[in-house]
Amino acid sequence: MKSHDFKKYLTKSVLGLEVLLALGLTIGIIIGLVDIVKYIGYILHTDIGHTYEVFKKFLGFTLLLVVGIELVLMLLSHSTSAILELILFAIARKMLIYSETMLDLVLGTIAIAGVFLIRKYLMTNKKFVNEEGRVISAGEYVHDVNFDTGLHIPENKGNTIGGLVCNLSEESATPVEEGAEYEAGNIIIKIVKMKDGLIEKVLLKENKEMQKQKG
Hints:
The protein is α+β, with helices and mostly antiparallel strands. The protein is built from seven helices and four strands; from the N terminus they run H-H-H-H-E-H-H-E-E-E-H.
């Protein structure tokens, strides 16, 4: 087996393992929902003097499930945004459940502010790498791209940019290949890089002709 073929096979195997892990986590989260119902029952029947401790455990368990959901999204999307959201929820859980002093709250607040600064300045700058428009990862969420760039890409046709392109491809009967362009509102999406049949990078640019017609 050639080195290139082995790397390709290994990559697909690792991606498959990630999907299996995400599936296992999802099953665990669904089972955990049963415990949430049990916690609600405990809260209803607990003496008022012990309600605080029970509710604290309930809140910690609920936020742990939320962290699990974000971890599943991270495994499936490989999105930097998903990683930051996972870190954000983990910090929030730490602050709400385990913070006992003012120093804990201050450090948690600084950590959350750091996450927002990374997303606002470091992540956004990496997207503006082409004079023709904005080159971004196809794994980015449409909502996050709109938030970071100020564009108005339709969010009802796909959660990620890659998913949006696939749906636009079906609607316009345009094959998914490098160089292919698709219209999404007043935005033109062009595939600039693919690997093993998967979209990796796309170029976003505003449709100037549509803007002229509106003007």
